[in-house]
Amino acid sequence: MEISPNQSLVDYFYHWEATTPDKVYLRQPFGDTFRDFTWKEAGRQARSMATYLKSLNLPEKSNIALISKNCAEWIIADIAIMISGHISVPLYATLTDTQINQVLTHSGSKVAFIGKLDDWAGMKAGIPSDVKCISFPTYNPDPEHEQWESILAKYEPMKENFKANLNDLFTIIYTSGTTGNPKGVMMQYKAMATGIYSTRDVAKLKMPNTRFFSYLPLCHIAERNIVEAASLTTGGTVYFAESLDSFAKNLAVASPTHFLAVPRIWTKFQLGILGKMSQKKLDLFLKLPILSGIVKNKIKKGLGLSDAKLILTGAAPMPANLIKWFRRLDINIQEAYGMTENLGAVCMMPLEKIKDGTVGKLYPDMEVKIAESNGEILTRSEWNMVGYYKEPQMTAETIDADGWIHTGDVGELDSEGYLKITGRVKEMYKTSKGEYVAPAQIEFGFADNNLIEQVCVVGQSLPQPIALVVLSDLGKSLDKEAVTQSLSSTLSELNPKLKSYERVQRVVILREPWTVDNNKLTPTMKIKRNVVEKEFADNFEPWYEKPETIIWD
User: Are residues 445 and 518 in the same domain?
Assistant: First the structure.
């Protein structure tokens, strides 16, 4: 099927359902076995669920919530919402009951699909009493809910093919947000259609037999694009990760053609490789012609990336040296940049002309300009969001009268259309000396030290910045003296490259890692800087006044 800016995701689904009914679309692992859903079976279930949704006599274009970790039913439910003429409101599976209540109430969702969750008992209280819930099968379904299998048995598959209007809303995506309440980004079918069309070549969406591995939250725009939308467009197969423990095994079996990982996962991969083979030994093997090829192939096969044609990183900045490290293994990671408000599709690094230190080249039909006043990146395209749901004031603050989205990121654009990110407008702060500091650029300087897993540079009201770090597993395995020496060496190399007021005065090693569970990371592994700063704010000055450079908390 030709990719067209006039085709909705619904159109692609109908095409593959009709022309490749027996091809496997979704593969859900259970231990060492899979439950496979062909396009025909996925269609049958989505159509029966659509019939049920229609039987509820909801107002036209109602908002319907999806609360689940990634699984086959997530995508089938999303298709059912689309073909019944409603709007999906996907939620993160890690939200608290209070957060769930806030989003469901704000969105006005009266129906919610409840699926694969770690703590449904703790989340349940957040569901408003007037919301009808539907439980996915096999994942500890709540007996008080309508049951997926019972609905499929009772309702006949919808026979007609609903035709989506490209100007209608397709979804409302509530951003994970590093600060404040999540905002509901409204996206039309047109946004996804034009975004897919303009990126079809660079995203390799015209190749046959595509395979995708789904494990990052499907409610996030990156996974929604590179897994759900791309699989519907190409007629490919989606493999799911069953759990964190089975992640490596599931990925190896999937051997995807398209793979996206956030920087923290690439760091985990690197540490896993170095845990089996020292950097010194790896460097030696890579110098030996025959052995080099064997080692590279073994590593790629071990990671499950032997067949990968598009290997992406995004959602957070990735250090150039980490990208170069994987490049030596013939794992060519292409950085991509975007935000929910512009469909996550601003630019991507082209393999044929790499410019390290940038996040890639603008996609066709994407406009970018840099604000003269503060260096903010502004974007404009056919796949702009319509606005924030029920938030006209915030919409007006983000999209100006000329249609430019104010991203909040600071950056530079060169003459060839390559974009460089240098910080966040809101993350820049003043030192007590009155100088502005962009912490993200300083944090990059710690990226080459594999004893560090997480770093957050702070310093509001201090004379000089300090760095809060969490050690990697490798760092935790070494004695204090070795770690102190390594971090001191990193600091000695980094500081001379910085402006005088940017130089890091102290490195503080914290005991507790920053996770989604303790609210210091978003579900896409971005550090919630404001949460970290608030928790440790009272310690900043005492740490700064200590005589030692490396401080063990």
Answer: yes
Candidates 53, 13, 363; CA nearest to 189 is 13
Other beta carbons within 10 Å of 482: 12
Element (H, E) at 87: strand 87-91
Residues 6+ apart with CB under 8 A from 152: 44, 45, 48, 49
**CATH code of the domain containing 270:** 3.40.50.12780
Q: Over 60: is that where the pLDDT of 177 sits?
A: no
Q: Are residues 487 and 360 in the same domain?
A: no
Condensed to tens digits (0 to 9), the pLDDT of residues 437-461 reads 778 778 888 877 888 989 999 887 7
Q: What is the largest CA-CA distance in the chain?
A: 75
Residue 501 resides in a domain: yes
| H or E segment to which residue 291 belongs | helix 289-303
- Euclidean distance between CA atoms 150 and 219, whole angstroms: 26
- State residue 499's pLDDT score: 82
Q: Is 0.70 topped by the overall pTM?
A: yes
SS3 content of the chain, % helix, strand, coil (to 5): 35, 20, 40
User: What pLDDT does 76 receive?
Assistant: 98
Strands (E), 1-78: 24-30, 33-38, 63-67
Question: pLDDT higher for 430 or 4?
Answer: 4
Residue identified by tokens 């890579």 is 286
Say if 272 falls within a structural domain: yes
Rounded to an integer, the average pLDDT of 46-65 is: 97
Q: Are residues 80 and 201 in the same domain?
A: yes
- Whether 246 maps to a domain, the answer reads no
Picking from 424, 444, 478, the residue at the C-terminal end of a domain is 424
Asked if 79 and 228 sit in the same domain, the reply is yes
pLDDT tier at 430, thresholds 50, 70, 90:
low
Q: How far is it, in rounded angstroms, from Cα 134 to Cα 68?
A: 11
Asked which of 188, 209, 238 is the last residue of a domain, the reply is 238
> Do 54 and 152 fall into the same domain?
yes
Please, what is the average pLDDT of the chain? 92
| Same domain? 358 vs 293 | yes
The total number of structural domains in the chain stands at 3
DSSP state of 535: H
Residue 244, domain member (yes or no): no
Is 218 found in the same domain as 98? yes
CA atoms of 287 and 285, how far apart (whole Å)? 5
Reported confidence tier of residue 424, pLDDT bands at 50, 70, 90: confident
Structural domain of 516: 429-552
pLDDT band for 419, please (50, 70, 90 cuts): very high
Say how far apart CA 476 and CA 479 lie, in whole Å: 8
